[in-house]
């Protein structure tokens, strides 16, 4: 019989196996839960992307409409003003060209943002919808396959459990049969030993009586030995049979064990990976295409805006006062052209149209000529000084109004935390004290320039005087 300790060991082995199978089963359930969770997160992410681009499309469309209204407001104002013809004639002037390009750029941005909104609604969002549908459908099919794989794996584990129990049973039967065979062999040895001791203990008697006793005892011993031998043979046959069954059961168990381990390895190393690949089939590639569509739209929007801004930049660089002055004077040549010379109007038939230096006025004319020459020399020197002063003053004004204070790139620099870096421009040039001081210096310089220009001596006045 099996010892209690051995029986408890078999129970411990089975309990350990059952615990291991329970752990595997729980792990399989967690795998499906994990995949379910990933699918839910994926669906939520795609839904958030759709909501995001839908809202962004609304914002882009509102922005487009506002830009359109802004452009139309000033275009309508330009068309409705009384001096429309005057402004139309000025369209070749560089400031007017900048203004027209600004309005054209606003119209262009309005169209571009409307196009961007349309792309969001009719291209990018449907892509996310398609990705969501495909992911849900593939996950459903993948989950069905996963459940089937897990079911097959559990069948293999259950079969291994059955084969293991069969092996334990047959091995236990073999051990029991071996124990009974050894017990029969011990009985046979005891019987032989008993017979030998009895022969040695018998006392000598008459030959006939002794012969009869020996024959009778031999018959009894032979009968007992035959019984023991027959029992031994039966137990030997039983042992051989059970031993063969145990060997076959052990072989089947070892083969099933190897097959089970291979199935477990295949499921965890290959099947699970393939299952996740099936769930992800096309997801990343489709998402990549959708996001690249968004990037293409945004990059082309930026490119379109950049092209429009380049035209405005060229127009700004071509702002030229001298060219505009010449253009204005050519356009309105009847307004700015010099009038006809004033001719000498003779009075009452006077035909002399030149200065006469007759003796009575000759001395006076010579004296006046000398005075004018002296005054003109003095004025020439003064005019040279005034010219230098005006040129220096004008240069100062030019330096003030042409200061390069337009670079605001610092306002668009971002740190790692995505917070805009504070512009140093706002602390210097654009601060109120700085603006006030600069404006005061500019106005003071302008006033000085016009004062010098207006009050400096005029040679013509001297001639008339």
TrEMBL record:
Pfam families in UniProt: FCH
Record field: compositional bias (Basic and acidic residues): 186-203
Superkingdom in the source lineage: Eukaryota
Keywords: Coiled coil
UniProt keyword Coiled coil, yes or no: yes
Keyword Coiled coil: yes
Protein name: SLIT-ROBO Rho GTPase activating protein 2
Gene name for this UniProt entry: SRGAP2
